[in-house]
Each structure stands twice: as C-alpha cells, then as structure tokens.
TrEMBL record:
SUPFAM superfamilies tied to this protein: P-loop containing nucleoside triphosphate hydrolases
Segments forming domain RapZ C-terminal: 164-284
One family name in Pfam for this protein: PapZ_C
UniProt keyword list: ATP-binding, GTP-binding, Nucleotide-binding
Record flagged with keyword NADP: no
Residues binding ATP, per UniProt: 8-15
Name of the encoding gene: rapZ
Residues the entry annotates as binding GTP: 59-62
Record has GTP-binding as a keyword: yes
Alphabetized NCBIfam families for the sequence: PRK05416.1
Origin species: Sellimonas caecigallum
The organism's place on the tree of life at top rank: Bacteria
Protein name: RNase adapter RapZ
Amino acid sequence: MRIVIVTGMSGAGKSTALKILEDAGYFCVDNLPIPLVPKFMEMILLPGTEYTKVALGIDIRGGQNFDEMADILKHFQETGIKFEILFLEAGDAALIKRYKETRRAHPLTGGGRVDKGIEEERRRLLFLKRHADYIIDTSQMLTRELRSEMYKIFIENKNYKNLYVTILSFGFKYGIPEDADLVFDVRFLPNPYYIEELRPMSGNDEPVREYVMKSPVAQEFLNKLTDMIQFLIPNYVTEGKNQLVIAVGCTGGKHRSVTLANGLYHALEQDESYGLKIEHRDIEKDAKVKGK
C-alpha cells in the first residue's frame, strides 16, 4: 500500500494536490483531526482492505496540535508503517496575493494580518517540511504544472529532486523580477529592435532567433550560461532549494532575452531530475504600450 501524507502551507495548493491524487485513483481524506490519524491508519491497514493508494491531508486548520503529529509519525516509523510526506510550499508574496484574491482569512489569524499567520504557520510546520519526501514550491506554478509534477512522483514513479526551475525573460525597463534568484543581462548582444523588419517580431520568431544567435558572442554566452546552470542545479538540490527562478533580461524583454531564455530552456529540458518551465514576462508589453 502507498500512503501519502499531504501537508504544507495554507494557500499553497494542498486541496488541489489531493484532488489530483483522487483523480489518479487515491482514496483521499482531508482535514482529519490529528488524534484520529492512528485509528485511520489501523483501519486502512486491516487485512483484506481494498485500498492500495491512500492520501491523507493534514494542516493547521482547527488549531491542531502538531507536537502530537510528530509523535504519531515517529510511532509509525518505529512500527514499520511506510508513508511518504508531500509538502506544498509557496513564498510569502504568493500566499498573501492568493489570500487577497480569494478574500479568505488565514486559519491562524481570523481577520488579522495574513503575514503574521503565515509566519506562525511556517514555524508550526517546520518539522513536517524537514521530514518531507517531496517538497513542491507552487509560487510560480499553474494547476496543470502541479499536476505534471505530481504525476511524475506518484504515477510514473520517477526520481524527484524537489527542485522546480523557471526560466524567465524580462525587460529591464519594466523592472527586474522580484522573485529572481539569478539575473543575467543580455543587453550586450546585437539588438533586433534596430532592424525594421525584425522590430515587430519577438525572440519566438525564427528570423529574430537567427539574427541574435548568428553572433559568436551570443553562442558562447549561451554555452557558458548552460554550463554554469548545469553545475549549479545539483548543488541547489543538495542545499535543499525548492524553487529556482533564472531571469534573462534585455531592454524591452521581447527579442534578445526571449531568444536566450528559449535557448537555455531547450538546453536543459532533457534533464528530468527537476521540473522546468519557461515564461516570457514582458514579450507583449511594447505592443500594449504603443496601442494606448
């Protein structure tokens, strides 16, 4: 039997994760009071049970005592009950934004400040995160991307390294992305903006890509950047980092940065030891500004 304990920060996508597991054939129970967890485990482990895949949602709703949960998990380990812990994480900014959009109150604050509730929740859940088998940071994830990552772990049984990499192109004139871990400036490369027929295009178009990448400097930069990122990623995994945002910027975020970000993405996409996606933050902004 495969038993998965789904936990993590409120607002990080735990309910969505349980729904994904349910769709994948797991028997799911959410928000079970912690004192009932041992009894639940006894029931599903009875001889002849029809359950082969079970997911149990545990969080801080209802002011549950997580000191007791720590003792329960220790007992499971001592008695040979095998389980996995999936921890859903997200940055403070992403969580606050989600609470504002849904107009929900944080379980630990009632109508008070969300940031204080998040801080206290992180403290209470720290031991679960430290013991987690899988940590997925959903700060930059869409639901379909979360589903893809979970299928790798719980359906395809692939080796999972707990790191999700986002390659993000942007324009410096619109500001450096606040969540960027690594920022690379490609404004030193030839600029297609000054070629009249290329100006309306973007780095997703072949003529722009060819113009940028025909420069030996661009090719050398991409090779060196790829080599450095491939060196860094295993070290970030070892450190326990869950989310890595690599930002590549040019002036407007439309030509050079898009081209190089795409090149880096294609150079890394064959490695299945971490999640990978690409975003072009500012690719359409010039057109919108000019259209005003």
